[in-house]
Write a structure and sequence with these properties.
By secondary structure, this protein is mostly helical. The protein folds into two domains: 4-92, RNA polymerase sigma factor, region 2, helix turn helix motif (Rna Polymerase Sigma Factor, Chain: A), CATH 1.10.1740.10; 101-185, Arc Repressor Mutant, subunit A (Orthogonal Bundle). Helix content is 67%, strand content 0%.
């Protein structure tokens, strides 16, 4: 028998659909932390994040028969999770804001972040997260998926149901909006004390 850990997500889905529903726990174990991080970056609330992720797993399980195993499971589960998160924001009309503009200040005085290798340092990851949190969701979601979930433009396109070119545009505009936001908050780049 093949070990569960060596099976791809799509193979595990086939096992769950055809013979052993309990194997769904393998999917949950693989994605729970990743999906939690993705949602928490937007909600900043442990309880809300846990509820959204749980709902996403339940919805994915209920709709497992409709999943096309020729596609990537990771994009599918992220899409469900993203939709659940957007539903939460829609119902609660909640905005995400940051308090510390100093992190944004540090980011904007560095060279433009254009490559994932440049966000390897923990400091820059923290700074980017502060920037992402301040942006509208249509910019924060693609940036979060790209920088923190290490998703390609194609995967982000599939998750968010937007064209690949739109992904690139939103990432570029998100960076520009971060700079604009910073300048507005700090009186054109000169920090107010």
């Amino acid at each position: 028998m093949v070990k569960q850990s060596t099976l791809s997500d799509e193979e595990i889905v086939e096992v769950v659909r055809s013979s052993d529903k309990n194997k769904y726990r393998v999917i949950v174990e693989r994605y729970q932390d990743k999906l939690y991080r993705y949602v928490f970056r937007m909600t900043k609330d442990n309880d809300v994040t846990n509820d959204i992720v749980q709902q996403a797993f339940i919805k994915a399980y209920k709709n497992l028969q409709g999943f096309d195993t020729k596609r990537k499971f990771s994009s599918w589960i992220y899409r469900i999770t993203h939709n659940e998160t957007m539903n939460y924001f829609q119902k609660n009309k909640r905005n995400i804001k940051i308090d510390d503009a100093s992190l944004l200040d540090k980011l904007l005085h560095r060279e433009q972040v254009t490559d994932r290798d440049e966000v390897e340092s923990e400091e820059l990851k923290q700074i980017m997260q502060e920037v992402i949190n301040e942006l509208p969701i249509n910019y924060s979601a693609p940036l979060s998926l790209f920088y923190y979930e290490d998703k390609s433009y194609e995967e982000i396109s599939e998750i968010l149901h937007i064209p690949v070119n739109t992904v690139g545009t939103r990432i570029r505009r998100g960076r520009a909006k971060a700079k604009e936001l910073y300048l507005r908050k700090t009186n054109n780049g000169e920090r107010k004390y």
